[in-house]
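Let us work through a complete example step by step.
Step 1: write down the sequence.
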Amino acid sequence: MKAVRNPAPEAPAPALREDKTYELADMFKMLGDPSRLRIVIATLEGPVAVSDIAERLGLSISLVSHHLRLLRAARLVTADRRGKQIFYMIHDQHVAHVISDMIAHVNEDAE
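Step 2: predict the structure and record it as tokens.
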């Protein structure tokens, strides 16, 4: 017989105002695009230049730049200008944990 998992949360979910519910849903929509999700994942290891992201993912620089503008507006990534070059990184540890946890979740073997 298969064991049933009971993933009880450690603490109750915090309350979320209606306007924040829409903001959160928009963030998840941003991550629903495979290219944007791959770009966010590319920023998990630290600051990375647009050209490096484009090369690593096999996308055009202009497409990566477009996605990065949207991801910055959604506060999923942040930018750091160094001279003429801009480096992108994950916005904060909250976003990093959500992405890392979901990667671990999809990589788990189904029981």
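Step 3: interpret the result. The longest helix spans residues 93-107.
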